[in-house]
Amino acid sequence: MRRALFTFLVGLVGAALLHIALVLALPRFTGRDAYTRVLGLLEMDSFFPLAAEPGPTGLDNNDPFLRTAVCSFSIADAPARFIARGSVPFWSLSIFDSGSNEVFSMNDQTAVNGDLDLVVATPIQLVELRKMPPEALAQSIMIEMKDEEGYAVLRALAPLDSFEEQVRDFLTDSSCAPFRRQ
Amino acid sequence: MFRVPLLVALALLVAFGGGITSAIWALKATVGFGSIAIGPWVAFPEAQTVAADPYAKAHRARVGDLLYGGAEGLKFTAATDDTGARLSAACSYDISGMTPPARFWTLHTATTDGATLRPGSDLPSAVNSWTVLRAKDSSFVIHVSPVAQPDNWLAIRHTGNFQLVLTLLDTPTAGSSGLIDLAMPKIVKTGCGNA
């Protein structure tokens, strides 16, 4: 009887260890985290507008009034630049790294003139950009990202149906591309 | 003779069975620690950050949602009414009061798994701070009901339980240190069935 009890306790300790190991290791191998889903859209370096119904990757416009576009990017070779212009009642952008951790987020009121112009660079690229700032980036917000891969989420608000077209234009005209000096 | 292998098997069974079920249960039951709860409304302002706890990270990796950044907004969900009873799609509820300060807010219904409910384009399935009808003091009452209601009506066409999702956009609440007095709308059941 005592041996059975002891065995049970050993099992419980094992269960606790396994529980901790599973929770800690899970983010690395679920295969359905946000970054993997964004990569599954197979659209690098451009914003991909999501539909209202979940596509094969399971991403959709969760909020009935927010239109979302996502873009996966890599800054291994060159910094990434995000541009969007247009008048929508509200837009917001978040940059996440490959572990889906927020690196940076902003909205139209924290932007220069209400336009999106953002450069994401590695620390080394950022030093170079600061040493010889290109004229094209005079108005840009520059942020540093340690991870070389990530994704961006751009949201625009359509509070009424009549804003739909404006918002669609805003998202399709937005760009997410590597920045290279001429 | 078979006692030792039997005991080893028992220990392994308890370890694997208990470990796996408890991990899955924990990730399904909660988004993690660090929630702010105001009445039935719950939000996780730090779930998308690197500072999120291991449960929050595992949960978001399993669900794979595009989370809101700190400057974007904060998503509150409510799965119960003010008395603590689960929201049932057969019942009617009144959501009344004010939201915390935000530039914009949206309200819609979702399944208990978080998938947005879309009752059809001919029914009002969501309201926002521009379209909601308000009283003179700018408070509002929204009727969430499977049957048509006057004033603000949020239609539900679903069976079983559902949850309410209130998203505050560009809100100081997301970075709240608890200094702002947050008042969320009340959720009160007004009746069930066709009555």
Describe this structure in words.
The complex is a heterodimer of chains A (182) and B (195). Chain A has 4 helices and 9 strands. By secondary structure, chain A is an alpha+beta fold. In chain A, the strands form 2 sheets. Chain A has a 5-stranded antiparallel sheet with strand order 1-2-8-4-5. The model of chain A has no long low-confidence stretch (mean pLDDT 88). Chain A has 2 domains: 1-30; 34-178, Sandwich (Immunoglobulin-like), CATH 2.60.40. The N and C termini of chain B lie far apart (69 Å). Chain B has 2 domains: 1-29; 33-190, Domain of unknown function DUF1214, C-terminal domain (Jelly Rolls, Sandwich), CATH 2.60.120.600. Chain B has 195 residues and is α+β, with helices and mostly antiparallel strands. The longest helix of chain B is centred in the N-terminal third of the chain and has 27 residues, at 3-29. In chain B, the strands form 2 sheets. Chain B has a 6-stranded antiparallel sheet with strand order 1-2-3-9-5-6, with no helix packed on it. In chain B, strands 8-7-4-10 form a 4-stranded mixed sheet, with no helix packed on it. Chain B has helices spanning 3-29, 54-63, and strands at 36-38, 41-43, 73-78, 91-97, 104-111, 126-128, 140-145, 152-155, 162-169, 186-192. At the A-B interface, helix 1, helix 2, strand 2, strand 4 and strand 5 of A face helix 1, helix 2, strand 5 and strand 9 of B.
Q: Summarize the main sheet of chain A.
A: 5 strands, antiparallel
- Summing up helix and strand content along with how strands pair, one would put the structural category of chain B as alpha+beta
CATH topology of the largest domain in chain A: Immunoglobulin-like
Corresponding CATH architecture of the largest domain in chain B:
Sandwich
First-residue to last-residue Cα separation of chain A: 80 Å
Sequence of strands across the biggest β-sheet of chain B: 1-2-3-9-5-6
Question: What is the total domain count of chain A?
Answer: 2
CATH class descriptor of the largest domain in chain A: Mainly Beta
Order of helices and strands of chain B: HEEHEEEEEEEE
Q: What is the count of structural domains of chain B?
A: 2
**Poorly predicted ranges of chain B (pLDDT <50, ≥5 residues)?**
none
Mean of pLDDT of chain A: 88
Q: Gyration radius of chain B, to the nearest Å? A: 20 Å
InterPro entries (chain A): UCP010244_IM
Protein name (chain B): DUF1214 domain-containing protein
InterPro entries (chain B): DUF1214, DUF1214_C_sf, UCP009471
Organism (chain B): Sinorhizobium americanum
